Structures are given as C-alpha cells and as structure tokens.
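Hi C.,

You asked whether I'd gotten around to modeling the 364-residue construct. I have! Everything is below, sequence then structure, no commentary in between.
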Amino acid sequence: MNLPKIQNAPHVGTLPAGPLGTIADVPGVTVGHCTLDEGAVQTGVTVIRPHDGDPFLDKVPAAASVINGFGKSIGLVQVEELGTLETPIALTNTFSVAAVAQAQIRAAVRADPQIGREWSTVNPLVFECNDGYLNDIQALAVTGQHFDEAWAATSSDVASGSVGAGRGMSCFDLKGGIGNASRVVSAAGRSYTVGALVLANFGRLPMLTVDGTPLGRMLAERAAKVETAALSATPATKPEQGSIIMIVATDAPLDARQLKRLSLRAGAGLARTGSVYGHGSGDIALAFSTAYTVPHGADFITLPPLLADERLDPLFRACADSVEQAILDALWRAASVAGRDGHRRLSLRDSVPDLVQLLKPAPR
C-alpha cells in the first residue's frame, strides 16, 4: 500500500527556519513571478527585490561567486567591481536574458530619467538557466512585459516550484524550478536571518541526496529493476548539465568582501544534494545584505558596525543549510509539466508515491 505523499521537504540540519521559510524572511525582501504556460512555451520570469524603494538610488551591498561558469548571465562584472546591486535581480531562461535586461533598463529609466544622461548608466542583473528540454526556448517568448508583471507581483508571499523562471526547469531528471528556504542564527549576540532562493536546473537522478540519504541512487536502482514511465531515469553515464542560480539574502551587516565569502558557502549546500558542478553546469551564487543601503551619488558613505570576520561562521552554516533546503523545496513543491515535442518531467512527489518510506532512517 502506498503511503501518503508528503508536501514539505524534510528539514535540513538543526538551525530553525524563519516564520515564512522563504527568502522573504529577510526583512524587506520580496519576490514576484510571471509564468508562461502555453503548450510548448513553458518558461517565465522571477524578480527579487532587496527592498521596496528605488534600487538605483538606494543600492544594496552584494557580491557573487561563480562556482562553475557555464552560464550567460549579465551584470556580474560590475557587481564584482563595485559590490552593489542597482536593479532588482531577475531570473529567466537562457535566450531571454537580453529581453529581461532591456526591460530592467527601461524600468530604471522610467523611475529615474537622468540615468544614461546626467547620471551614469544602470547595471541590469539577470541570471539564467536553460529550460530548453520542456520549453520551446527558440520561440523567444519572454518579453519586457513579463518582467514588468513579475516586478509588479513582488510580495512576501513567495511561491516555489514550477512557477516563474522555474516553470520549465529540470532537477535530477525530475521537475525542478524555484525553491526557497531560510535559517535564523545568532552571531555576536544578535539574531540574523539568512534566506535563499534557487533556480534549480541541474543534476542526474542517481546523484540526488536528500539530507544524507542517497535517494536518487535508490530510485535509479528501483527503476532499473522495474520499468516505469513514472521515473524515466536518465542513464548515470550521461554527464551532469544544466545550471543552478543561488540567491542568498541576509539582514546581517556585511560589506561586499564578506558577502563574497558568504556567497561561496552556497556551494556547500549545493554539493550536499549530490552536485559535482559538472562541465556543462552553470553554478552561480549571489549574496546581498539589507542591513544598509549605499546612496547613489553620495560623496561619503556611513556604514553601520560590520560583523567581524571571526563571527561569520553561523552565517556560513545558515547559507549552506538554506541553499540545500531551497533545492529540496524546489523538488518537493514542483508540479509535473508537459512541454515541447511531448517532453515531460514528473515531479518527485508524483514519481514516488512512497517517498515517506524511502526517506525513513535506515535501521542501525
């Protein structure tokens, strides 16, 4: 008899989650999605706002780590040089990066007409993953309007799964997409939140590890014994491809150098799920802080007291845990999707009705 399906991924580690369990647990952070779901077009846009003000006038400190650079993102060079964000963060499919970047520029110019004239130009920031297995990526279906709709939809009520940019994504040969998580830690005697949002589109089924359990290997062995259309397992010999974008937010007062260090720890959470950052995988993490803003055009900037490097370990741990949790959230929350040319990805929950039993700890 099949056991009931579980709706939530198992909690990773011992650190507590925030009340929402999403990146929106970090004060001020909101997320919006625009989902395109029409036959062969299965894609979308996801927008992350670090605060509800003007991101160009009030920039936030940020830094990125390129763990594996097989990607087509835009805007990373200036983030690396200046250490700030000046637009919302946008996620979409590979062929839609240019359209979304142009929409970001138009939105910034509407808000501040001096951009590119009396003022400097604006740095759009767009990340991507290749959803071409499910989505007709050659249709170039995403337009500037879809970015605008995702931005207008931003709120603290953050959806996960087959939504927004995650609509056409695959993860461990199952349905992937958007995942969320948060962790609350104490550092230097104060409480801070670390939140993560991922666009998960990577991995081969036999590699999938869930909180230390080799779930993917178990499922692949089961599929090898019993032919099933539910899993459609990809041979383990096929190289890992795809990508993952990991966005990490915190309310801890960190500068760009420290945020670079924090972003690198996202790779620890990614590795725990079974990824080896394969040749064809673009694995990029960006971290930002909402603890203060950097005013545009200021002559001097007053920073709050920053956490000492020796006090960062709890944040590093929270980053790794929240990224791992967010990847599992993407797998658990995703709905099955049929897309171009009859291609289909079943969700983990649809594929494995006895998932509860598989995840029970093995007897000692």
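If it helps when you're writing up: Confidence is low (pLDDT under 50) at residues 1-6.

Thanks,
B.
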